[in-house]
Amino acid sequence: MIRALLSKLRGRFFSRLALRARLALWSAILLFGTSILLTLFINFVARASLPRVIVAPLIATPPPVVRPTALPEHITPVPFEAPQFSPQPIVKGLAIQQVQQATLRQILLISTGGILLILVVGSLGIYWLSGYGLRPVRELAQWVTHIDAQTLETRFAVNGPNDEIKQLADAFNSLLDRLEESLQQQKRFVSDAAHELRTPLATLRTSIEVVHTNPNATLTDYREMSQKLEKTLSRLERLTENLLLLARAEQQVTFEEVFLWPLVEDVLSDMKPLAQLKDVRLQLDGNTDILVRGDSSLLSSAFRNLIDNAILYNRPGGSVKIHIASESKWAITTIADTGIGIPQEDIASIFDRFYRGREARSLHRNGTGLGLALVDHIVHLHGGEIQVESTLDISSTFTVRLPLKE
Questions:
Q1: Looking at 152-156, 230-234, 356-360, which range is the least confident one?
Q2: CATH number of the domain at 255-406, out of 3.40.30.10, 2.40.50.100, 3.20.20.450, 3.30.565.10?
Q3: What pTM was estimated for this model as a whole?
Q4: Backbone angles phi, psi at 286, to 5 degrees
């Protein structure tokens, strides 16, 4: 019951106080408790030791009787009378007891005054010291309130030991580094997306204007315009879908148990018409029981983009081989094609958003440059990694490593 009362009091009262006031209040409570214990200890020791120190030497005892020694025969002895001893220490003992009681009361009074003095002076001192100690935190808070998108490059410098204040400042600086990098990526993404959207929109407008401004346009011209518009709209649809996946992948991810074999098999089933059109043979082999934990929709999008590229950048009569295996704690899926390959200078950039190599632009003009960026994002979102090996004009092999279901 007492614990529940203290908890309720702490929740209603202490939570409304500032950190500095809470530090001072808790310190005052600690000082008060320590002072009470010290006072009790002093009074207990005083009561236990004071009688032995003062009363013991004053216990009345009769003086020793001196007996005369043997005298010579020519000396006549004088009759000896022992002095009468009066037991007066009883009166003195009462007086000493009164002195003791007065002394103990004085000690208690002084101790109580000391408690109040320590409590007041200690609380004020701790309140001042806590304010002084929290000054860097206030400065850090004031500095953070002035940070915005235009001043994101500023950093908070703390000189001194590697204490909690410096660790807090370093944490804020690290957070700003990540925010600045994320903001720069977002700016580049928006700029690149605007550029990529502008191109097909300009193509649409130009195709329509060419036909509309030609008074002698024939049905064939309109059919050609319709075909061009269809291709451009298809590119816009793919670009929009990829942009939405990149923007919402982290919010939409739902982890569940996924068997890789049926997932890749479904993707191949969807890609067969394109493979037949390009005269490319699809082949799937490996372990059929490999289980991973991930989002089946996102993983399907990742493998679909990889297989789509393997088909589009292949040569007639070529092949795409997908092999599924496991190694240690990883599920390994390799996608090897017999296509045009990737130049070595382009391999480091193929996973960048909107990046398209020269060969890719010449062979597949409707590409968006987001496919491999989307694959890389999805794979890393699942805690995996993707690697590529390629030989120009011979083949390319993409290896996707995903954590196995434990």
A1: 356-360
A2: 3.30.565.10
A3: 0.51
A4: 120, -155
